[in-house]
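To: structure subgroup
Subject: Chain for Friday's discussion

All,

I'm putting the inputs and outputs inline so they're searchable in the archive.
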Amino acid sequence: MTFIAQDEINKIRSQSSIVEVISSYIPLTQRGKNYFGVCPFHEDHSPSMSVSDEKQIYKCFSCGATGNVFTFIENYLNVGFSEAVGIVANKLGISLNISLPQKKEVKFKEEYDLMRFVTKLYENNLQTEKGASALAYLKKRNLLEDTVLDFSIGLSFDRNMLYEVLIKKGYQEKYLEELGLIYKKNHDVYDVFRNRIMFPIHNLEGEVVGFTARCYLSDETPKYLNSKETYLFKKGCILFNYHRAKDAIRLQKEVILVEGNMDVIRLYSVGIKNGIALMGTSLTKEHIEALKKLRCKIILMLDNDNAGETATYSIGNIFEENQMDFRIVRLSGEKDPDAYVIQNGKEAIMTAIKNAISFVEFKLNYFKKNKNLKEASGLAEYVKAVIESLKNTPDEILKEVTLQKLSAEYNISYAILREQLGEEKQKVQKEVKIEKKEQKQSSYEKTCSKILYYMMHSKDFVKMYQTKLGIFPTKEHRLIANEILYYIEKHKNISIADFITYAETTNLKQEIMDIINNEQELEMTEDGMMELLIRIKKKIKKEEIEKLKQEIKKEQDINKKVALLEKIAEIKKGSVENESD
């Protein structure tokens, strides 16, 4: 990661036009003083993103996406903050003055160095005379030289060559065994992988952590042999080809999720470079987190067998629960994408991907399994399953089409189907309303948020806060105010677009962005700010007076009671004077 000075970041931000930058990616139409476009961060069918040229920020009124020009580039192109700044600077023709941070100590550096060496050793083996038969096998499988090189495919020899080389380099047997490179049997030591074509497996950051090894000269079992689970190699945290596919995924806004390594490599060999694989494991929370970071549509394309169909249903439910954007491809005729491409070619699989279906459409077929739809009980069970699945689908058009289809195909009253779905819908809406009511901000919290929003726009509003209020009673609002004061002290000025960038470096990023999101349409004037400040001061005075009244009730000493009453009179007098200022 590179470091860019805050002043330089602010300079780039101030010289850029958020309208020009965003309109280079999505069409914008001017309405009044703002510009509107279809939001790229959710399934948007009508322009719900507003872009303010005056404030240099954007907001989606549907999904709540908010930010400045850098935030948009980060999320739209799925890049880091420094890269986003670089992209905007490049558009302006500005040369960045970048300072590099001191290198941090990398955990497992020695292990990564070793695994890189092992990978290179296997690659070299493949290019030797002894590797000729393995190369011939790969060519027979239509894997050309470029693909072999891109995936660092190699070869393990039929003797304990790796063990011998690594021992000579000074590595200990126990260490190599822990990494899954050798194993012991009856006091003898062996390479784990022998006489196999080697496919290195990288973690999400691109470091080699293990291998998949395929036999190629015989029908030896298992056909594929994977590295054992180690402290370095954890299947549940890995998506094969993730590190290599990120650029293609970012450009295409789509990732193809398959089961096996060879499926990914086959897709890559015909120019489809946005594929990643689960490597035959169940979907984990780590996988979900990694997929969400890609911020793109997922094409789920698992094997064309019963296990693949069951896994598609299971993973689809997980994606739906996590509100992820995904479609499904079920290939026909061949077992997996690897075989499908070999048999039918690139155009056929591209067509299949283009015609990917929704999860609801998949379930319409899936729920028919093992049911006799000619019998009333089987049909009723099927219809109930479909309706239950529709309850989790936010797409109202898809719900309508599905119900119409069920009604026409099985001669079932549309009204009854809609009623069954509608009852649950009303229940869900009621629950959502209750939840929103519980999370509703108090009048005091709203007023504090508005004051903070004012302060993010101008140092003049900050001065009004300092002279007329000075401090917020609640810790959360005080902390945000302190960040604003610190920013102005350091940079001598403030704009909301620049403060959004600064917020990225604080622990209050989410709270700050929530305020910006909620208050973005607020019209700002000095009179408006003063009214808000007076409102808060009244609230503080009222609470002080109430507290003193409670003390008076408890106090037995008449002189102390009088003193407390005098304090209340002073507070009330101060309130009147302030109101007349």
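Points worth raising on Friday:
The longest helix spans residues 526-554.
The chain has five domains: 3-99, 109-233, 242-351, 365-438, 443-580.

D.
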